[in-house]
## 1
Amino acid sequence: MKIVNVLLAILLTAIMLSGCLYPEERKAKNSAPYQHQLKEVQAAVDEFREATGGLLPIKTRDMGVPIYQKYPIDFNRLSPRYMAEPPGTSYENGGEYLYVLVDVEKKPTVKLIDVKMSEMIRELKLRVEMYKDQHKYPPYKKVVSKNLFMLDHEKLGLKEAPSVTSPLSGTSLPLLVDEKGDIQVDYRMDLAKLMKQSKKTLKPGEEVQDLMWEETPFVPAFSVKYTVNDKQEPVFLE
């Protein structure tokens, strides 16, 4: 009987340990491909800059393009001399990420944009534009912040409020619309988690959205500016 109890205890301990370890193992497995490929692309970008006197291997974008989407990497300028081909996780090679550069003036750094997020925002933008063609203004439902609004999803023919899945946390992030009719992602939930993890003390009025690309592989694409309130909670910067 004692032997059976010992075996049961060992089995339960093994199950508990496997349950605790599995999320970390899964996280490592899921993040390994793009983390490894980020390093490869970063090395190729650095080598390209050194060989060209500091030029950036990027596609040309209009000046009005938001900063986080402004510098997409042009893999035609990197391949095959600086890397054999675009990484498997890149949109250009059938993957689900756009590779972009941030901090281009000081230290050009390779980061990611989730293609699925971009596609969902593009689709919602089309719905809003079609609605505006008939009604002049987007279907505003509620003011969230200065020049930022919730959309009336029913008037757009949607069953629920529009959102995207955060590539960082897996959380559903609401989609909002600004006064120009552009779609913006509400990153407050992701930023709140990042601020708790980073333990940085931030000042009200100080922009905090860069914390995302500083602490993670992703940029806050389709983002407005954020700051913190007196409770160190992320809020829209007005």
## 2
Amino acid sequence: MFRRKIRPAQEEMRGTAFTVVFVLIWYASLMRGILYAGFQNTYLLFLAAGLLPVFTAVQGVRRALFYRRQGREIKGSGNAARGRIVNVIMKSEPYEDSHHRARYRRYYVLVAEVADPVTGVVNRIESPAYSRPIHRFLASPEVTVYTDRTGWKHYMDDFQWKERKSDPGIFEGDQVFDEYGTGALFGKVLVILVMLLMLYNIFFH
């Protein structure tokens, strides 16, 4: 149910749709101004400025595709072993918002125990970081852990997803607010709708 929605943070392409709509509105406004008032040198600055979010979005997509390809390579050529998720670590990463205020991004790292098939020694392996509390959507702690040939990079897959969010989770009593859940999705749809209405107003009024 949630498989296609939850990827490691480094594989996400969040914000791309907003950037596309914003750039459309930006250039539509400029084109309308040029048509009504004629081209002026000051428009060159605004035309160039519109390329900045495009560049940022392209870099974000390239980065996500790189890590998705890397994940497929680890799964395709690495060693696979069944493991059991025993813990989740929440990490915070500081950043500055547009008003230069300190904010924190939360990430969730799964910790799985995997037994060595030869020695029987149990090793603890960490997953890539997720921006969503992925453990809240899992019905079972069982997971497949992939390790690349160097032994340094790991990837987890073959999760067993809940049928419903209200189903019991793998950690009892664990309550984490999902910042990217249904409410956040509604907010994104609303913002895109407002942007499209602005675009309509530019072209047809």
